[in-house]
Amino acid sequence: MSPRSIDAYGLPERVAAYDVDMEIMHPNRLKMVQVAIEVMPFPSNARLRAVDLGVGTGYFTGKLLEAFPRSHVYAVDGAEAMIDLAKARLRGKARKVDFLVGDFRDLTGLLEGITDIDVVYSSYALHHLTRDEKTSVVRQAMSLLRPTGWFVNADIITADMPDVERRIQEIRVNGIVERARGLDPRFSDREKTRRFLDELEAKEGDQPLTLNADMQVLRDAGLRDVAVFWLEYREAVTGGRK
After folding, report:
1. Which tens digits make up the pLDDT trace of 47-92?
2. pTM of the shown model
3. What is the DSSP letter of 126?
């Protein structure tokens, strides 16, 4: 995402810019969210009570409210600026969302008194946590869920073997350069793209787990029927039920 302030640009334009970046760097985002929603075993007319961990610009929550229009979402994010973008994206749907600014590592504190949640979901957020922090967050999510409630996560992972990870990263960089089509100076060639990604991931504190470790986190947090619902290279949709 280009370093442009919300004060200088209208919110809808900022959402559009963010989405362009996501299409370049994470072209599977739509597919991952679609799979995550398909996994949720609820009828389309269900009045779900849901929690979005790291709502960002509201992409996942927007798709969930399209699939389950009678639902209500508690959307958590540590950045008020991102919540402003989510409100801009959701427009009229925002009335179905309670936005909470705060660190979701204190999820139960932020959602004090809120129970009987049907589904907790997240996308491209939990890989910023350490393994212990992630286990704690999923465990807190479990405490909010009603019996048989679901936890679903669409996020990035890393390979178990260094050689495999290197190859996946090569595929990743090649794809970004191809999708950018020379129109974005950040992604004009492989070297610049690699530098940009390394700097971005260092700045954002990325620390993705391997798929096996990620699945074990869900089990350690107490989820049952833990499964991988979709996987391609370094992105996966995982989850389970209480």
Report:
1. 999 999 999 999 999 999 999 999 999 999 998 888 999 999 999 9
2. 0.92
3. G
* Strand order through the sheet with 97-101: 97-101, 72-77, 49-53, 117-123, 145-156, 235-241, 224-232
> Residue 19 pLDDT > 70, yes or no?
yes
Do the beta carbons of residue 83 and residue 99 sit within 8 Å? yes
Q: Which two tokens stand for residue 145?
A: 């869920």
Domain spanning 11-158+208-241 has what CATH number? Answer: 3.40.50.150
Does residue 7 surpass a pLDDT of 50? no
> CA nearest 154: which of 25, 22, 28, 32?
32
- Token pair for residue 198? 């390394």
The Cα–Cα gap between 119 and 145 comes to 7
CA dihedral sign of residues 150, 37, 102, 24: positive
Cα separation of 141 and 132, whole Å? 14
Q: Estimate the crossing angle of helix 162-180 against helix 11-25, to 10 degrees.
A: 130
What letter does residue 158 receive in the DSSP assignment? B
Query: Is residue 101 a contact partner of residue 81, using CB atoms and an 8 Å limit?
Result: no
- Start-to-end CA distance of the chain, whole Å, equals 36
Domain range summary for the chain, segments of one domain joined by +: 11-158+208-241, 162-201
